[in-house]
Structure formats: C-alpha cells, structure tokens
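Students often ask why we bother encoding 3D structure as a string. The short answer is that it lets us treat folding as translation between two languages. Here is a chain of 242 residues written in the first language.
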Amino acid sequence: MSFPLSLPAYLLSFLILTCGAVLQGSVGFGLGLLAVPLLILIDPVFIPGPLLLIAFFLNILVTFRDREGADYPNLKWALSGRLVGTIIAALILRFLPDDVLGIMFGVMILLAVAISSSGVHLRLKPSNLLGIGSLSGFMATSVGVGGPPLAILYQKERGKKIRGTLAAIFLIGTLMSIISLVIIGRFGLRELYLSVISFPAMIAGFYLSGKTANYLDRGFTRPAVLIVSTISALVVIIKSIN
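And here it is in the second language, the structure alphabet:
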C-alpha cells in the first residue's frame, strides 16, 4: 500500500494531531474538537476511524498518568450512555452519503463549540451522566468529537479529575465506536494505515501535555481552539454544500 498522504499533507496533519493531543492531555478533551474540522480538509478518511484509534491510545496514556484523579463511581453511568449513543450513530452512518456526512461533521462541530462555550453546568447525577454520555457517544462515533458534552459535567472539578475521568470514559467509549465502525465497514486497511503513521504525532503531543497541563488548565487556549474549530467547521459545511 502506497503512502496515503503527500509530504506537506502529512506534516500538516502531524502538527494538527500533536496540538490536539497536547490539548486533550492537558485539559481532558480537545483532540477531536481541534483536529476534526482541520483533518477533514486534508483527507476525509481521517474522520472518524483513524482519529478515534489515535484517541484510543492517547486515552490509555492519559488514563494511566492521571488514574488517581478519576471519578470511578460514576463511570458506569457515562459509559452506559456512550454505548447507546454509539449504537445510534452506527445505524445512522450506514445510510448517509459522504456529502451529507460532510455537512453533519460541520454542524456537529458547531454544536460541540456551542456546548463548550455555553458555561452551562449540570449536576453529576445518573440521569445527566446517561443523557450526556449518549450524546458523547453519538458525536464521537459520527464525527470523532465526544469530549465537550462530558466536559460540561466536570468543568468545575480539579484538572486531574477532569483528565483522569474523561480519559477513562473515552478509553472504553472510543473502543465501542471503533468496533461499530469495523462492523459497518467504515474502518478498513487504509484507515488503519493512516492511524499507524499518525501515532508519532499523538505520542509527541502527550509528552508535551505533561509540561503544559498546569497552564492549559486555566483555560487560556480554549478561546483560540473554539474560534479555529468554528471557522473550520463552516468551511467544511460550505465545501459539502458546493
């Protein structure tokens, strides 16, 4: 199998994934929010399969690093919701053409941005965890962005608790999404190859996030991420319509 990207495209995707991994490793989410609208412009095959597999291994690393802060008692509720949302997304993805998916990607990213910047705070109770977990699973499987809904529930918690909890949820949730994509034929050898050649970017981002976590926990980079994601999502929607 030939190399799937040109050298400039690979280097650009490497930079995007590294920055996304730094964000997720620092604040608990951000890989998909930053990477999806940009990677889809480089090669739509990145979304959702390869990005989910990259996120899966990133979550392994973050879960191990921040394991002491995770909110283990509430994981079962969030993960139950993720399963429901994943199944719904997998069923829908089987019947949507690529141009519709492109519009869907953009709209869902705008939704993720709105959720992230809304300032809404929900209590950590089973009903909220189930509902938000379902939305997270649907968004993760359909567009590779599952972090913002769950981040709302934990936005007032310590940085280590946010990172440890979200990473543990995403670890199992992304595995559910990947399995569903394989079953419906949306994850094959090309997606696997694209994932493997992108792993070095994820590892570099995780390493850097260990240095930047204390700074990014204060929220200095979130406005920039949301602006870039919004602009990129609008570009994707316009491109799909045309």
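Translate back mentally: The longest helix spans residues 189-216. Keep this in mind for the problem set.
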